[in-house]
Every structure is written in structure tokens, then in C-alpha cells.
């Protein structure tokens, strides 16, 4: 036995060291990245202020109309958020995402300040309720723009996952810090003072977001000039299609994108299943506190605290998993962990089981949130990413509302233990049914071969990690024997090539040898960007392996990003002068 323990200890220490190393590496990548660091500071500031504000609103609303007023206000706010989220998220795809975030912060700061002024002046309650409801709607465009912009700021898929994990951990901490600040301030100050604190938190967010550098990361929002239109291969009629798109068609693009991609769809379904329990958790912890802990409604605070602490641990664990390439399976695990605790309480309705259940729910929450957001960011085309997040938020809010609505009915009809069993078994069924597809999705999300080669091409440097990964998946392998001509002067320009192995010779139309190129070098961009036939002949000097991008894929990537286009033109200028 002693020997077994002696052997196990180094293994356990090794696992701990690996966990700490992976977590530290992932978090450092977020901190070192100036843009991601500013994004997280903005998010943290506004979150803390929002939770303080929510606490103050609840205290004020309870004083005005009791629990009924709080319930009605919450229901109306959630319903409006579910309806308006897809509409508001359209802004994140139509305008600069950085500016959308700043505008949303300023909008919220103005409304919160106006609500504080109303309270200071002793106005009737209804203007404050209206302003508080409208303030909550400002979060939708901010969150959609934030989620859509983050992939453009991350340098690698692992960094993107780490950033989402950091955001989830900050959100868990804000759930504690915000209400604590509100409670402290309300002990010596008034509700309007907390409102003004929230307004300052929005201004802090504006300050942080304003320093994010998106010139190299965010897509080019300027219209394509007539000179550039020919380079993309689009006709004038095709270029006008987005203008002709109806508002309803534009705003529903997020739902349609999710429906067409079955991997996206199953991810959203699993995430929505989890939020049914999240909505129910607004009700059943209160019943557990009364019936199992037998300490009355105040026991909810203890249960919520256990859940919140575990959520921080879950967020850190999710960050440590960033490099494991198990996003989909980790998300399914998170959904399953939202069901198992409910069954535990069903079988063993004791205080220890209640606390254990809430701890597991808290730990599982970041596993679902972090991985769901990262999956959506990596599967969704950039041009509709904001609207997809708007559609996702609408689904999550709607299913959360369903969970909150049906749970009191189930409790009334069947009691606590049967209600938890129904919820637990239902969510487990959804998670396990989708597991085979989620495993296949992880294979789809493994960084493709050729990604490192594209990363090394200077003109692709400004492209974000998700766009580069998509390009790498489109690469076509071309094996060329020694002595074969790959392209000739005057040929149609139809592909861009990167050399994986081997060597090629580049000759001008008059037969002059211009240069030799080897692994990591590229060719074919001149004819594609200038829409002219090939300007040189390229011949394989030895057995060569090429990775090719089609004309459309190359032009969409390079001409859609101003800095990438500039770098490509620099390469062309140097080569034409040679």
C-alpha cells in the first residue's frame, strides 16, 4: 500500500504541474496580447458595475412593489432581450465592432445616469423601470460585437479559447464582487449612488475599448472601390446584393447560418438545453434551501456562493484545456454535469448533496459557456458572426425563460425530487444523443495542416486566427514531379500557391531566371490581385509539394482586409522591380 501511494504521489504532482503550466500559459497569452487584455479589462469593469446596478435595482424595486414588482420587471426585461437581441446584433456586422461596443457603453451610461437623476429628483417609479429596462437592452449589441471581435484579436485558436475562459472567470468573480460593492455602498449611501457607480464602470469600459487596435485585425468596413471590384471577381449586380437585402433577411441571417451548419446547430441545442436548467436554478435552489437545508430562504445565498466559487474553478480548468482540442466534448461534459447533480439530489436529498449539486453546476457552467462561444467563433463566417451571436443569445434567453416558467409548475405537480429527476434525465438525453456528432466536431476543429505555412506568409499576417484557419482548411495539395512546369507566362491566373517542400525556378517571359523559391515561399499573387494573366513561368526543379488556394478564397481573404492588401502589393512591387 505504501509503495502504491509513493508511486501515485509523483503522478498526482505531475498532473497538478501540467494543469498549472497549461493554465498559466493560456492566461499569459491573453495578458501579453494588448488588445485581448484591454477587452478583458473593459468586460470586467462593466460586469462589476452591472451586477452592482442589478442589486441596487432589485433593492429599489422591492421597496417600491415587493417581490411582485421584481418578478414582473425581470420577466419583461428578459422577454424584451430575447426579442431584440437578433436585431441589435445586426449592428455588429453592419458597423465597426469596436465602435458598436463604445456606443453601447455610452448609451447605457447615459440611461443609468438619467435613472439616478430621476431618483434624486423623487420622480414616480415608472420612468426608472423604463430606463432600467432600456439599459439592459444595450448589452445585446455590446456582447455580440465583443464576441465577434475577439477572434480578430486572438493570434491562435488556443488563445481564443483562453480569452473566452478568462472572460467566463471574470464573469463568475463579478457575480460576487458586484453585489458585494452594491451592498457595501448601500450601507452608507443611496441607490442613485450605486447607479452612478455603474455609469462610471461603463465609461471605464469605453476607455479600455478605445485603446484596442483593430486596424490590422478587424475586417475592412469601407466599400469596395470600382477599381477593386474587378479584383474580387464580383459583378456589379453581385456587389449590390447586400444593399438589396431586406432588413428581416439581414437580421435573420444568424438563425439561418446556425440552421445550415449542423455542427453549429447541435452546439446551440446543447447550450440551450443547459440554460433550461439555468432558468430552473432561479427556482429550485430556494426549494432546496427550505426543504433540504431547512434553514429557510436565506439558505439560497449559501448555495449560490458554493456555485459561484466552483464556477471560478471551472473557468480556470476550462482555460487549462485550451490546447487540448476537445472543445465539443468538453462542452458536452459540461451539459452532462448540469444534469448529474439534479439526479444526485433526487436519489439522496441531503444538505451535503444539495451543496455538492450546486458546486458541480457552478463548475460546469464555464465548460459550456467557454466552449460554446469558442465553437461558434471558429465555425461562423466573420460577416455574420455578430448576428449568429445575437441569434444564440435569443435562444439561450428563451430557453432560460422556459426553464424558469416550467419549474414552478413541475414543483407544484410532482414535488422537488421528481422535478429534478425530469430535468436531469431530459438534459442528459440531449447531451448524450449529440455526443457522436460532437466528437466528429472536435476532429473538424483540429488545426489543419498548412496553417503554419500560411501564418508565415507576410500578407496573411493581419488576418485573424479564425480566418487563417478557414483558409488552411481550403488548401489543396498539389504534387509536382521534377522538371514539370507549374504555370506559364500568359496562363489564366486561377490559384495562389505556397511551397511545402521542394524547389521551383521562376523565369521571365524572355527566359531570364528571376529567382529560386523553396519551402515557405509563395507565388501566384500578381495575376490574382491585378486580374491579369500569369507574368512568369514557374518550373519544379525537384519533386515539389504545393498547397493551393483558389482565386476566390485568396481574393476574399486579402482584398477584404486593407492591411493584408497593402502587404500583398508591397510583395508585388518588389517582384515586378526584380
Summarize the structure.
With 578 residues, the protein is α+β, with helices and mostly antiparallel strands.
Shape: elongated
- Main sheet overview: 4 strands, antiparallel
| Annotated CATH topology of the largest domain | Growth Hormone, Chain: A
User: What is the count of β-strands?
Assistant: 8
Class of secondary structure makeup: alpha+beta
Write out the strand line-up for the largest beta sheet, numbering strands in chain order. Answer: 1-8-3-6
Residue-averaged pLDDT, rounded?
Answer: 79
Q: How many individual helices?
A: 25
Helical fraction equals over 70%
Question: What oligomeric state do these chains adopt?
Answer: single chain
Number of domains: 3
CATH level 4 superfamily of the largest domain = MFS general substrate transporter like domains
Beta-strand proportion: 5-15%
Q: List segments where confidence is low: pLDDT < 50 over at least 5 consecutive residues.
A: 1-9, 11-16, 216-243
CATH domain class of the largest domain: Mainly Alpha
Kindly provide the radius of gyration, computed on alpha-carbon positions and rounded to a whole number of angstroms.
27 Å
What separation lies between the terminal Cα atoms? 75 Å
Annotated CATH architecture of the largest domain: Up-down Bundle
Would you give an account of this structure?
With 578 residues, the chain is of the alpha+beta class. The protein folds into three domains: 19-213, Up-down Bundle (Growth Hormone, Chain: A); 257-446, MFS general substrate transporter like domains (Growth Hormone, Chain: A); 451-577, Sandwich (Jelly Rolls). Helices cover 74% and strands 6% of the residues. The protein has helices at 2-32, 34-94, 97-121, 125-137, 139-153, 157-188, 191-210, 226-232, 236-244, 247-251, 253-260, 262-280, 284-293, 299-320, 327-337, 340-347, 351-379, 385-414, 416-433, 435-445, 451-455, 465-474, 525-530, 551-559, 562-577; strands spanning 476-480, 485-487, 495-501, 504-507, 513-517, 522-523, 537-540, 544-550. The radius of gyration is 27 Å and the shape is elongated.
Amino acid at each position: 500500500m505504501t509503495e502504491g501511494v509513493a508511486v501515485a504521489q509523483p503522478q498526482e504532482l505531475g498532473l497538478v504541474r501540467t494543469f498549472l503550466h497549461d493554465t498559466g500559459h493560456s492566461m499569459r497569452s491573453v495578458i501579453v496580447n494588448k488588445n485581448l487584455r484591454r477587452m478583458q479589462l473593459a468586460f470586467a469593469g462593466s460586469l462589476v458595475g452591472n451586477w452592482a446596478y442589478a442589486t441596487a435595482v432589485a433593492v429599489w424595486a422591492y421597496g417600491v412593489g415587493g417581490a411582485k414588482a421584481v418578478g414582473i420587471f425581470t420577466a419583461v426585461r428578459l422577454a424584451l432581450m430575447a426579442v431584440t437581441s437578433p436585431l441589435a446584433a445586426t449592428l455588429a456586422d453592419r458597423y465597426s465592432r469596436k465602435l458598436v461596443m463604445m456606443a453601447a457603453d455610452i448609451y447605457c451610461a447615459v440611461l443609468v445616469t438619467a435613472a439616478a437623476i430621476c431618483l434624486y429628483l423623487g420622480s414616480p417609479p415608472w420612468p426608472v423601470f423604463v430606463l432600467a429596462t432600456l439599459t439592459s437592452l444595450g448589452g445585446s449589441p455590446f456582447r455580440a460585437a465583443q464576441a465577434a471581435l475577439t477572434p480578430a484579436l486572438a493570434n491562435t485558436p488556443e488563445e481564443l479559447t483562453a480569452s473566452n475562459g478568462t472572460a467566463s472567470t471574470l464573469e463568475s468573480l463579478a457575480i460576487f464582487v458586484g453585489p458585494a460593492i452594491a451592498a457595501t455602498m448601500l450601507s452608507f449611501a443611496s441607490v442613485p449612488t450605486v447607479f452612478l457607480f455603474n455609469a462610471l464602470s461603463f465609461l471605464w469600459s469605453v476607455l479600455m475599448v478605445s485603446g484596442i487596435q483593430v486596424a490590422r485585425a478587424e475586417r475592412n468596413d469601407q466599400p469596395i472601390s470600382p477599381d477593386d471590384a474587378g479584383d474580387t471577381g464580383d459583378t456589379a449586380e453581385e456587389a449590390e446584393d447586400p444593399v438589396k437585402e431586406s432588413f428581416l433577411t439581414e437580421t435573420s441571417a444568424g438563425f439561418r447560418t446556425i440552421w445550415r451548419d449542423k455542427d453549429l446547430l447541435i452546439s446551440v441545442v446543447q447550450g440551450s438545453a443547459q440554460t433550461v436548467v439555468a432558468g430552473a436554478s432561479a427556482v429550485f435552489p430556494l426549494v432546496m434551501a427550505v426543504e433540504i437545508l431547512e434553514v429557510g430562504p436565506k439558505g439560497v445565498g449559501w448555495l449560490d456562493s458554493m456555485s459561484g466559487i466552483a464556477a471560478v474553478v471551472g473557468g480556470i480548468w476550462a482555460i487549462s484545456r485550451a490546447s487540448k482540442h476537445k472543445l465539443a466534448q468538453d462542452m458536452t461534459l459540461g451539459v452532462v454535469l448540469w444534469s448529474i447533480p439534479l439526479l444526485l439530489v433526487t436519489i439522496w436529498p441531503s444538505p451535503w448533496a444539495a451543496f455538492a449539486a450546486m458546486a458541480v453546476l457552478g463548475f460546469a457552467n464555464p465548460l459550456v459557456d467557454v466552449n460554446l462561444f469558442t465553437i461558434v467563433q471558429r465555425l461562423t463566417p466573420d460577416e455574420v458572426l455578430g448576428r449568429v451571436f445575437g441569434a444564440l443569445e435569443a435562444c439561450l434567453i428563451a430557453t432560460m425563460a422556459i426553464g424558469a416558467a416550467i419549474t414552478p409548475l413541475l414543483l407544484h405537480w410532482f414535488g422537488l425530487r421528481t422535478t429534478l429527476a425530469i430535468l436531469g434525465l431530459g438534459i442528459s438525453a440531449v447531451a448524450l444523443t449529440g455526443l457522436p456528432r460532437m466528437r466528429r466536431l472536435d476532429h473538424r476543429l483540429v488545426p489543419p495542416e498548412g496553417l503554419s505555412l500560411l501564418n508565415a506568409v507576410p500578407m496573411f499576417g493581419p488576418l485573424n486566427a479564425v480566418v487563417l484557419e478557414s483558409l488552411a482548411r481550403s488548401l489543396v495539395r498539389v504534387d509536382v514531379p521534377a522538371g514539370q512546369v507549374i504555370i506559364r507566362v500568359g496562363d489564366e491566373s486561377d490559384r495562389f500557391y505556397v511551397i511545402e517542400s521542394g524547389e521551383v525556378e521562376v523565369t521571365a517571359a524572355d527566359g531570364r531566371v528571376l529567382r529560386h523559391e523553396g519551402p515557405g515561399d509563395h507565388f501566384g499573387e500578381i495575376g490574382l490581385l491585378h486580374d491579369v494573366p500569369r507574368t512568369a513561368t514557374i518550373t519544379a526543379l525537384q519533386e515539389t509539394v504545393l498547397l493551393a488556394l483558389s482565386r476566390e478564397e485568396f481574393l476574399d481573404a486579402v482584398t477584404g482586409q486593407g492591411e493584408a492588401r497593402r502587404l500583398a502589393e508591397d510583395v508585388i512591387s518588389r517582384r515586378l522591380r526584380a
